Structure of Biotin synthase:
Amino acid sequence: MSIDFNALATRILDGGPDSEATEADALAVLQAPDLELMFLVAAAGRLRRQHFGNTVKVNYLVNLKSGLCPENCNYCSQAVGSEAPILKYSYLSKEETLEQAGAGLRGGATRVCMVSSGRGPSNRDIDKVVEMTEALKDEYEGVEVCACLGLLKDGQAERLKDAGVDAYNHNINTAESHHDNIVQTHTYEDRIDTIGRAKSAGLSPCSGLIAGLGETDEQLVEALFALKALDTDSIPVNFLMPFDGTPYENTWELSPTRCVKILTMARFVCPDKEIRIAGGRELHLRTLQATALHVANSIFLGDYLTSEGQDALADLHMLRDNGFSILGLDDAGFAELIATHELNAANAATVHRSHAVSTTPCGSSAGTGCGDGCGGCSIAQAPAEDNKPVIRARGAGTEVAANA
């Protein structure tokens, strides 16, 4: 092997002034031969188990406002100039937000991530999120709320904290040295400023990156050490989803093994932080999703902001089949959750067969889907053409049941 990754894990676990992974260590992880992948996973898995055992934190996204964004982030399907045929709608109502969040919480999530497109929230937008948060906290005991609303202004982070928001997400997305290549309507410093505002208000900082944007290995290392310096509590690692109609369409720089190495590097550099496998998980990790969870400890359930994710029941089966438990659920609760999903899936299949001879197709705009957790009969969908992102057409902003 190029370096002894097990010895690196031991050094980190032992602590001390020279115990932390260096930039050279991180680069060695990224550049390790694919044949050494399982050595990497086994070594980094020791760090994961030390801090998180076999638990997986399940998060659920609610896209409060989709599209209509004035920022020109080249990777984003919601950005100005994007021709991706995504859902476009203004803010959900409080009632719609509760309905969508409830689907995720019943599906096994413990954190709801409320996201809005745009440069940043107006004070009126903050009013809406405050009302939504208070309603969520009243209805669901113990729920964590993370807000992701863009660049914050004076006093806004404090208002969110006072309302009960637990965390604020604002990704740096890439290395400072690469930032201006992917977006020009705001600066890297703007993003750092918002993370600082969230931390100062007492919100748990959540910030991560997107891999596959043309960055070098050295720039991935740079971004990860920047996140370490920011001391973010959770680090979502996204893998570029090359939507048609965006500048990054047909950009495919990632393999499943490279994605696992990126997550493994994150674990070595930030051994005690929540490493979340975020957008692009299914598209890029493919059959290595479960392998990646031996170094990461957090996922999103179901769909993403503008794209569809793996069927929620498949997510739960993946966790159970690989010996993981869901944070906040005991074994009996996990078994009951899967049984409920399986029953919903069986009912959905029955409804789908009846719709097959109906004039109103399941999941069409004229219907309401098959019921809680069906997601508009996602079980009947064809695979994505050419392995491209599938545009979300269920859940928030639609009349079709969420994939939760």
Notes: The chain has three domains: 5-50, 52-329, 333-387.
